[in-house]
Specification:
This protein is α+β, with helices and mostly antiparallel strands. It is built from one helix and six strands. Helices cover 18% and strands 30% of the residues.
Length: 80
């Protein structure tokens, strides 16, 4: 069982993410079924429920937990 981060830790994660990455950053989204899909962020990170860091992604309805996304370098992004 994973422990949820404290409010302070989650707030620090959001602050650090927003300081480091702009809206439109390409990210890999790690899903429950162990697949990884490429998306682009379409919002800044924020807290919900006071202790869950989330973000909006392209082609996704609803928010995803920030710990499920990892920024990719331009070398990892493949052009269509």
């Amino acid at each position: 069982m994973t422990r949820r981060p404290t409010k302070r830790k989650a707030a620090l994660e959001v602050t650090e993410w927003n300081r480091t990455y702009a809206v439109g950053t390409p990210v890999n989204y790690h899903q429950d079924n162990h697949t990884v899909t490429l998306h682009v962020t379409r919002s800044e990170a924020r807290l919900i429920g006071g202790d869950v860091a989330v973000i909006d992604l392209s082609c996704r309805t609803g928010v995803v937990a920030l710990d499920r996304v990892h920024p990719v370098t331009t070398r990892e992004v493949k052009s269509p």
